[in-house]
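## Example record

The block below lists the input lines for one assembly entry, exactly as stored, with component labels intact.
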Amino acid sequence: MIEKKYHKEAFERADDKRKNLILEVGIEEFSSKGYENANINIIAKNAGISIGLMYKYFATKEDLFITCLKRGMSVLEKSLDEIMVSEDKLLKKAEKLIRTICQHSKKYSNYIKMYNEISSRKDAPDSISDVVEEIESKRSSIYITSISQAISKGDIRSDIDPRMLALFLDSLLTTLQFAYTCNYYKEKFKVYTDIDIEKLDEEQIVTQLLRFIESAFTYETK
Amino acid sequence: MIEKKYHKEAFERADDKRKNLILEVGIEEFSSKGYENANINIIAKNAGISIGLMYKYFATKEDLFITCLKRGMSVLEKSLDEIMVSEDKLLKKAEKLIRTICQHSKKYSNYIKMYNEISSRKDAPDSISDVVEEIESKRSSIYITSISQAISKGDIRSDIDPRMLALFLDSLLTTLQFAYTCNYYKEKFKVYTDIDIEKLDEEQIVTQLLRFIESAFTYETK
Amino acid sequence: MIEKKYHKEAFERADDKRKNLILEVGIEEFSSKGYENANINIIAKNAGISIGLMYKYFATKEDLFITCLKRGMSVLEKSLDEIMVSEDKLLKKAEKLIRTICQHSKKYSNYIKMYNEISSRKDAPDSISDVVEEIESKRSSIYITSISQAISKGDIRSDIDPRMLALFLDSLLTTLQFAYTCNYYKEKFKVYTDIDIEKLDEEQIVTQLLRFIESAFTYETK
Amino acid sequence: MIEKKYHKEAFERADDKRKNLILEVGIEEFSSKGYENANINIIAKNAGISIGLMYKYFATKEDLFITCLKRGMSVLEKSLDEIMVSEDKLLKKAEKLIRTICQHSKKYSNYIKMYNEISSRKDAPDSISDVVEEIESKRSSIYITSISQAISKGDIRSDIDPRMLALFLDSLLTTLQFAYTCNYYKEKFKVYTDIDIEKLDEEQIVTQLLRFIESAFTYETK
DNA sequence: GATGAATGAGGTTTCATTCAT
DNA sequence: GATGAATGAAACCTCATTCAT
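Predicted structure tokens for the full assembly:
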């Protein structure tokens, strides 16, 4: 997979401090206002550079957004990597994933909000395809690898395609992430469980979701 | 629960043909372009009414959007109702839900796109709260009721809160719905499974997801 | 002078209760929002009649405004009449006028706000001419008459044209009226005197303004 | 007193020619049509700049209006300053003021029309308060100072509060200004005096008003 | 007499992007 | 490399007035 670039060469030449600042400020703007309502002129101003220079760094607002998004996702990926690379059994890994999600929900809420945003963009499939590839391929392959290993070790069921299992697992975890950070999902969590997720004991959610996943991953259908 | 109105009285007085046309046209516009890029003037024109009259019917673009969204969701709810109200066992119901989702994916894709849209709005929790209530309360209570009954009959596990089970189930089904209709999720499905969901045999997805759910709902954790 | 009509015949045929209600509601709307921001549809709704009927009564928003204005001014005129028609000396009359203004400032503030509004309309001189005639001729002639009588009785100075005296007197009294009711003039009063006119003792203002007027009206220039 | 800014920084950076042109064009538009009917797009076009740039200079139509208004008032203030700062006695100053008003009536009619406009705005007292302060404080303090000096020198009466005297004086002069420039007041002048003020000999009005003021300012009430 | 649905021009404001310096 | 002035299309929303019933 070739990483596509969503910034111009000039951005690479800028010093790290500036690069970081631009992306931080952009993430703040995009995650708080959403893509359409974010204002690239304001991002430039808050990052202390001119709008002209901004366009020397990024061809379009879209490109800046994707670069910010990628930055956020790569941070999230790191925690993931550490967990999935370990020697733990899959269910232990799942538990750690859930705990990480609970704990990171505030720290990384802006990244997750951007992810929530991209997931409802109305772009044509062709133009969105690369982005999805960038964002999802790493995580999906980590999941799939871990699951495949677990299957071959006989730790989990083998009557469901590992790729599907990965997708189902991701679905549950992503929903949990959104419940912690995105307004709609937060409210939806309350409607379903009658609980304000911010006041919910982490152990509760870990236990319940883990039980669900454990059974789903363990027992083959008769 | 009191149903809040997102249209003015005048809209109720309009004849059904017009009401339907406005909402259909609105749904088409919102689902294809997203909320921000949708244009009320175009909706009015396509519905054959003046923009002035549009504002006699709906106070704001936001209100029109929510009314369109509610219309879509209520249609989806109907199929749901029929399934959940039946005498089937829970897992049979789940199977029917999955099949319905697969089959409705094209017919009702616009409704689902609007749902995808609302789920990433950046509104304040307070203002989004009512909408979530409107959209989610019916479906969640149907799920919860069915699950609770299944638990008391001993059909499924009893060591997970029925409300949580409902949420997990919904999470999986919603992801499936989005995979069928929303670009990002469609591409993500391909990244995970390497399969174009539109070319995928329905039976495949039913089998795999149902196995996952069945185990998750059946076996208690030791 | 021929009274021009600013309403249609149909309005005369309406029963008094309705006529009064329409004007009251109109006065409330115009005085609180100003002419441009007042909404004739809202006036109709608040008066309990249809907008169609409103246009059977008044040809334009402008006409409704002027009719409301005239209603208000005629009420104010009545207090004036009583004072000016009396046998009092001119300065006694002036005192009574000032007192009346102070006391009526709240009760009739809406009428005065409308008067303040008309006084800054940008209409062409031709079209505004009739309105000024309607509004000002009665009051001016009362003033002029009283002043002329006082002059011939030798009560006041005779070296200023009575019409000019009337104008100067009116200028001072109108400013006082506005200071009691219109925001800009109220604030201006505070800037000049450092006093909030609403907390000011009536006697104060009566004494000071009356002294000013008394000297101005009494002593001839050497 | 802190001068509040009603323009953005960018406006200050524009070159003087452009700044002047924008304000001149704005004053023309606002004074001829009134605030509500003035059109910023037209002002921008007539000033030869884009509407986008207009909004880089002024945050709102309101701000542009106030900036235009302040420009006009500061010009008027200058003539005033020259007169009031002189060594003349108060009544000589008053005479000069009257003459200046008569002579400036055409040249500065647009400024006065804007002043007439602001004096009937329906804004909340809080939001109008700053503007009144900006517009009135300079003039009022000049008046009050001159009057206080005249009192201490024994030139004029001392039984009326100098601040009140200032207000009464201003009231008469402002009415005269409006009579020269604003349609309603012009017509009203005609109704009272039966004279078209534009054809009136300046000497007439100076004589009559000055006599009034002189007596009012000179003779104490017995 | 009475209704109120319907019109649509028009105004304020936003913001991604360009380009001369 | 860096600036930021400048553009202008386009969108939401208002409301006086008309007219068929």
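The mean pLDDT of chain B is 94. Residues 10, 13-14, 49-53, 56 of chain B lie near DNA strand E (CB under 10 Å from a C1').
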